[in-house]
Amino acid sequence: MARDPIPTWFFALAVVRRGDRFVLVHERKHGQLWYLPGGRAEPGEALVDAARRETLEEAGIHIVPEALIRVEHSPRADGGARCRAIFLARPADDTPLKSAPDEESLGAAWVSLEDLDDCPLRNDEVAQLIRYVAAGEHVQPLSALTHELAPLTPETGVALPSDGTESGYAPVSFEEVTALLRSMLGLDAVLVVQPQAAVAPLLQTSGTLGVRDELGGPHDSDQVFLVGGDHLHLSRRDLLSASRWRVGRHWEFRLVLASVVVTLSDPDL
Fold first, then answer.
1. Which domains occur in the chain, in start order?
2. pTM of the model
3. Structure confidence by residue, pLDDT tens digits, 248-258
């Protein structure tokens, strides 16, 4: 027997941290109190993308989501439900926060733990989340929230060792991959593209790491990097998971795309 769909609203929030300070938004609605950047996801929009968009609209800055704090699912007595994803993020650059009111918010500010007691917050969860993050409590990798039937990969749930050594694989987001690659422009690299179900690579080449920016620059959802004369086209839509490995000066990126696994590493590895 067919059942009616469950009406569900989806929301995304971002705890944006820079050092010992966090972003709060001065809301236009809800009594003009202070709250975390966030809001309802648009149709067809991933929750992590909703967190990026809402932070840009309300606080005026681009962010790099780094981890998933938690996912909440709240069924209601009327048969509907709410689902919220709360992300940990950092600012993508040094752009100042919004200072002039607009239709999205009255502004935004960086606040410390000490400032929280003096801020008229919308509710207690704002301070709870900020204190949770500031205390270094457990968070999940971004790959813990993915689309239905996404393949399981070894880097899902892997984190750097707790002793702080720079070894092992750490999960990274699309923005982190592209930002790290851009930071290494001009270095020599080895590129290997391999089908997920085959042993022999489709492509193996080496050369100087470069970038092509015709597609819109570092904040675009498509990035084209160059290794020698070959192209590495990265798309947020096709990137299923990514991880970084580093020991001393040796490094490697492992990118799981829709149909291939891409490895980019230093030539001395």
1. 8-140 (3.90.79.10), 153-265 (2.70.180)
2. 0.60
3. 667 778 887 76
